[in-house]
Every structure is written in C-alpha cells, then in structure tokens.
Amino acid sequence: MASILSVRGISKTYAGGHQALGTIDLDVAEGEIFALLGPNGAGKTTLISIICGIVNASSGTVTVDGEDIIKGYRHTRSTIGLVPQEISTDMFERVIDTVALSRGLFGKPRDDAHIEKVLRELSLWDKRFAKVQELSGGMKRRVMIAKALSHEPKLLFLDEPTAGVDVELRRDMWELVRRLRDGGATIILTTHYIEEAEDMADRVGVISGGKLILVEEKTALMKKLGRKSLHVTLSEPLGAIPAGLSSWSLTLADDGHMLDYQFDAHAEDTGVSALLSRLGELGIGYKDLNTEESSLEDIFVDLVHRPAREAAA
C-alpha cells in the first residue's frame, strides 16, 4: 500500500543545545491507524509538530501525500488535520462558527452539509449555537476534533485525544476513529492509554529519548516480544525457592503461596512441562495453574527501559 507520510532523516536540536529528536525515518501507509507510544518528553509531540509544519526540523525531509511539506505546504497542510493536546480555540465563538471558520482557513468552500455531518457524528449538533466557553471539558475536546475534520483531511493526527475525558466520551471517540478509517482516512495517534493502541492500531511505533526504537505491526510485535507468565498456586507455602528449581527463573509471590514463571510462548521448549515434573520430584504440590499473556503495555515498558538495563549491564 502506498505511503501517505514519509519521514526521512528528521532531527530537531533547539538553540540551547537540547536534542528533542535524533534521526527519525518513518513511513505510514494510506488508510492505516498508526499508534506512536512513548513516555513524556520522548519526542512524540515534536515529531508531530514538524510534520504539521508547526516546528522547523534541524535536518531531514517530510513528504505528505506525495508533496514536500515545505515546497508544497499549501497542499500538505490542507491534507493534514491535527487535534493537539491542549484545547485552543476562541471561547466566545459559537461551536458551528468556529468549526466552519476552520474549514475556510484551509481554502475549502463553504459546505454546510459537511459541517452538520461532523457535528452530528461528534454529538455536537444540539450544541451548535452554544459558545465554546459554555461547554464541558469533554465537549470542548469534541470541538477540537470537529475543527480538525472540518476541511476533510486525508491524514489526521490525534495527540493524546482522550486525555482527561470520561470513559463514555473516550469510547465514542474511538468509534469515530474507526469510522474515519473505514472512510479512507489515515490516523496517527499518540496516547497514554496503551490498551487503546492495543485495540485500535494496525502498527505501533515506540519512541524514547528522541529515537524511534521500534516500528512493527501490532500483532507481529506481540508475537515477537510477548511473553507469558505461569502462576502456580502451591498446596503449602514456601519460605524460599528450593535449590532444585534453580534451572528456572522463578519468583515467589502471595506470601510464598505462588510460584511465578515467565517464558517465551513461541519457544520450541518453554520449560513448563519440565518445571511441573520437577515440582513433583521435589514433592511440592500445587492446587492450581493459570497463564497470563503480556499486554502491549508490558512490551512497551520493557522496550523503553531495556536500553538503560543493557547500559547498566
């Protein structure tokens, strides 16, 4: 599938010497949902701001829908919709006016039917004549999304779109994201709610310390890096792990009532059968067994902290 976004050699160093981004290369395919994950200060917002033309890169190029963002800025900016983290709009404007104005700023002709469609999809139609300042925080967030959708962008950036909103609104927003993707839009989102990325994204990128440390299809990432945990509930508690179990990396939990064993579910020999046999040989009885698979959050935390662990080693 063709790339709607191509980032090559993008970096950003500010005047004071702070390097916000190292060298970033990234391609995003048309019609996909791409989740960009990373801790605070990792460079997510800086990268998005460069692509959207808000911040100038120190080096590199960005192409959106086949056009360079500098040479073809008129086309690329009308192709992009951005929902920033911060709510920033004229609080004294009526909802319908501020959304319609956003469409006009991108040189698009007046289209009342489209504005109505966007407001209805975001449950804002009943509030169309209300001033933005009169709305709740969640409704203001919906207005920001409506403004970003007003000019019918092909590429939509959602920078922490559900931060600080209630569960019901968050669910509504993700349903809207799915409909937008089904309609042909490409979605790039950053989020702290990793379960949303796990549920929504086609691919995941992990950024840390200004470097894009991994880009992978979500299912492939979880298959490649995901681990399982075996929880063995013991018949009698142990004060310590016996020396006879030293071949396995085990930990005691629940005041000695449980043995935990992490293993690679895709390995040819997981070690689970041998562990259970060894427990029998040592006369260690158990009442229950259950397994738990790593979540995307577990994988994310491991990836972000792995460089520090490797450096310490």
Describe the structure in your own words.
- It is a single chain.
- Helix content is 34%, strand content 28%.
- The protein is an alpha/beta fold and 313 residues long.
- The protein folds into 2 domains: 3-223, 3-Layer(aba) Sandwich (Rossmann fold), CATH 3.40.50; 227-293, Alpha-L RNA-binding motif (Alpha-Beta Plaits).
- The protein has a 6-stranded mixed sheet with strand order 6-7-8-3-9-10, with helices on both faces. Strands 2-1-4-5 form a 4-stranded antiparallel sheet, covered by helices on one side.
- Helix 3 packs parallel to helix 5 (137-149).
- The chain starts with a strand and ends with a helix.
- Residues 308-313 have low confidence and may be disordered.
- InterPro entries: AAA+_ATPase, ABC_transporter-like_ATP-bd, ABC_transporter-like_CS, ABC_transporter_ATP-binding, P-loop_NTPase.
- Pfam families: ABC_tran.
- It comes from Sphingobium nicotianae.
What topology does this entry show?
Elements lengths: L2 E11 L5 E11 L3 E5 L6 H8 L7 E6 L2 E2 L4 H7 E4 L11 H11 L6 H10 L15 H13 L5 E5 L7 H16 L3 E5 L3 H7 L2 E6 L2 E7 H8 L2 E7 L15 E4 L4 E6 L8 H10 L4 E8 L2 H17 L1
Parallel strand pairs: 3-8, 3-9, 6-7, 7-8
Antiparallel strand pairs: 1-2, 1-4, 4-5, 9-10, 11-13, 11-14, 12-13
Overview in brief:
With 313 residues, this protein is of the alpha/beta class. The protein is built from 10 helices and 14 strands.
> What profile does the largest beta sheet have?
6 strands, mixed
Overall shape? elongated
Which percent bin holds the helix content? 25-40%
Roughly how many Å is the radius of gyration?
A: 24 Å
Report the order of strands and helices.
EEEHEEHEHHHEHEHEEHEEEHEH
